[in-house]
Amino acid sequence: MATPVDPDFRARLAALNEKFAATVPVTMEKIGQALAACKAAPGDLPPEADLHQLHELLHGVAGSAGTFGFGMLGQQARRIEHMVRGVLAEHTGWPAVIPEVEQLLKWAARDAQATTYE
Protein backbone atom coordinates (compact mmCIF):
# COMPACT_ATOMS: atom_id res chain seq x y z
CA MET A 1 0.00 0.00 0.00
CA ALA A 2 1.43 3.36 -0.99
CA THR A 3 1.83 6.06 1.63
CA PRO A 4 -0.10 9.22 0.79
CA VAL A 5 2.06 12.28 0.23
CA ASP A 6 1.16 15.42 2.14
CA PRO A 7 0.34 17.91 -0.64
CA ASP A 8 1.28 20.86 1.58
CA PHE A 9 4.66 19.44 2.59
CA ARG A 10 6.69 21.29 -0.03
CA ALA A 11 4.88 24.56 0.70
CA ARG A 12 5.55 24.20 4.44
CA LEU A 13 9.19 23.33 3.79
CA ALA A 14 9.59 26.35 1.50
CA ALA A 15 8.07 28.56 4.20
CA LEU A 16 10.52 27.20 6.77
CA ASN A 17 13.41 27.80 4.36
CA GLU A 18 12.28 31.40 3.84
CA LYS A 19 11.94 31.91 7.58
CA PHE A 20 15.47 30.63 8.15
CA ALA A 21 16.81 32.78 5.30
CA ALA A 22 15.29 35.84 6.96
CA THR A 23 17.22 35.09 10.17
CA VAL A 24 20.63 34.73 8.51
CA PRO A 25 21.53 38.46 8.42
CA VAL A 26 20.60 38.87 12.09
CA THR A 27 22.58 35.79 13.05
CA MET A 28 25.62 36.98 11.09
CA GLU A 29 25.31 40.34 12.86
CA LYS A 30 25.35 38.53 16.21
CA ILE A 31 28.43 36.57 15.16
CA GLY A 32 30.07 39.85 14.16
CA GLN A 33 29.23 41.35 17.55
CA ALA A 34 30.60 38.29 19.35
CA LEU A 35 33.80 38.53 17.31
CA ALA A 36 34.08 42.25 18.12
CA ALA A 37 33.71 41.50 21.84
CA CYS A 38 36.44 38.87 21.59
CA LYS A 39 38.76 41.21 19.69
CA ALA A 40 38.15 44.09 22.14
CA ALA A 41 39.33 42.09 25.12
CA PRO A 42 42.80 42.90 26.41
CA GLY A 43 45.44 40.21 26.19
CA ASP A 44 46.15 37.39 23.79
CA LEU A 45 43.04 35.37 24.56
CA PRO A 46 39.46 36.65 24.83
CA PRO A 47 37.49 35.94 27.99
CA GLU A 48 35.98 32.47 28.04
CA ALA A 49 32.43 33.86 28.16
CA ASP A 50 33.00 35.79 24.91
CA LEU A 51 34.52 32.74 23.23
CA HIS A 52 31.57 30.63 24.37
CA GLN A 53 29.15 33.14 22.88
CA LEU A 54 30.97 33.02 19.54
CA HIS A 55 31.07 29.22 19.69
CA GLU A 56 27.35 28.94 20.49
CA LEU A 57 26.38 31.16 17.56
CA LEU A 58 28.58 29.26 15.11
CA HIS A 59 27.27 25.97 16.49
CA GLY A 60 23.68 27.07 15.90
CA VAL A 61 24.40 27.99 12.29
CA ALA A 62 26.39 24.80 11.73
CA GLY A 63 23.54 22.68 13.04
CA SER A 64 20.69 24.22 11.12
CA ALA A 65 21.95 25.87 7.94
CA GLY A 66 22.23 22.72 5.85
CA THR A 67 18.68 21.69 6.66
CA PHE A 68 17.36 24.88 5.15
CA GLY A 69 19.39 25.00 1.95
CA PHE A 70 22.48 26.80 3.26
CA GLY A 71 24.86 23.85 3.08
CA MET A 72 28.12 25.71 2.54
CA LEU A 73 27.28 28.21 5.27
CA GLY A 74 26.73 25.31 7.65
CA GLN A 75 29.97 23.61 6.64
CA GLN A 76 32.05 26.73 7.11
CA ALA A 77 30.37 27.59 10.41
CA ARG A 78 31.12 24.05 11.61
CA ARG A 79 34.76 24.33 10.57
CA ILE A 80 35.21 27.62 12.42
CA GLU A 81 33.20 26.36 15.38
CA HIS A 82 35.77 23.57 15.74
CA MET A 83 38.56 26.14 15.66
CA VAL A 84 36.89 28.10 18.48
CA ARG A 85 36.35 24.89 20.42
CA GLY A 86 40.08 24.23 20.10
CA VAL A 87 40.85 27.69 21.48
CA LEU A 88 38.52 27.01 24.41
CA ALA A 89 40.17 23.66 25.11
CA GLU A 90 43.81 24.48 24.43
CA HIS A 91 43.88 28.22 25.23
CA THR A 92 45.82 28.82 22.05
CA GLY A 93 45.13 29.48 18.37
CA TRP A 94 42.89 32.53 18.75
CA PRO A 95 44.71 34.73 16.18
CA ALA A 96 43.93 32.22 13.41
CA VAL A 97 40.20 32.33 14.18
CA ILE A 98 39.77 36.07 13.61
CA PRO A 99 40.33 36.15 9.83
CA GLU A 100 38.26 32.99 9.40
CA VAL A 101 35.23 34.54 11.08
CA GLU A 102 35.75 37.79 9.18
CA GLN A 103 35.86 35.89 5.89
CA LEU A 104 32.69 33.98 6.80
CA LEU A 105 30.88 37.22 7.54
CA LYS A 106 31.96 38.83 4.26
CA TRP A 107 31.06 35.74 2.26
CA ALA A 108 27.66 35.40 3.93
CA ALA A 109 26.91 39.07 3.29
CA ARG A 110 27.42 38.47 -0.46
CA ASP A 111 25.37 35.26 -0.72
CA ALA A 112 24.89 33.00 2.29
CA GLN A 113 23.26 30.40 0.07
CA ALA A 114 26.18 30.11 -2.34
CA THR A 115 27.51 26.63 -2.92
CA THR A 116 31.15 27.71 -3.21
CA TYR A 117 33.17 29.42 -0.51
CA GLU A 118 35.62 32.13 -1.45
Automatic annotation (TrEMBL):
Keyword line: Two-component regulatory system
Biological process according to GO: phosphorelay signal transduction system
GO molecular function (one): protein kinase activity
HPt domain span: 18-105
SUPFAM superfamilies on file: Histidine-containing phosphotransfer domain, HPT domain (SSF47226)
Keyword Ubl conjugation: no
Pfam families hit by this protein: Hpt (PF01627)
Tree of life domain: Bacteria
The protein's name: Hpt domain-containing protein
Species, as recorded: Rugamonas rivuli
